[in-house]
Amino acid sequence: MNDLIVGFGLVLVFEGLLWAAFPNLATKLLIAAAQTPQQSLRTAGAIAIAIGVAIVWSIRG
Predict the structure, then answer these.
(1) What are the pLDDT digits (tens) for 8-56?
(2) How far apart are CA 33 and CA 31, in angstroms?
(3) DSSP per residue, the chain
(4) What does the alpha-carbon distance between residue 35 and residue 15 come to, in Å, rounded to a whole number?
């Protein structure tokens, strides 16, 4: 459970860093994501999940 909380904290750090350091870029990324077809977003999300699981599995295996 501690790992899950640490992982969530790291997500917040990276998300916050993007908005704090590059707010214009973050806004452009949101606009681009809103204009991207849903199927492409789903595919990219599924790939990100698979890579994330592979990384965690290889480290924590």
Answers:
(1) 999 999 999 999 999 999 999 999 999 999 999 999 999 999 999 999 8
(2) 5
(3) -HHHHHHHHHHHHHHHHHHHH-HHHHHHHHHHHHHS-HHHHHHHHHHHHHHHHHHHHHHH-
(4) 21
Neighbours of 18 (CB within 10 A): 13
Cα–Cα distance for residue pair 48/54, rounded to 1 Å: 10
Asked whether the beta carbons of 49 and 42 are under 8 A apart, the reply is no
Residue type, position 21, single letter: A
| Residue 26 near residue 19, CB atoms below 8 Å | yes
Tokens 């997500």 found at:
11
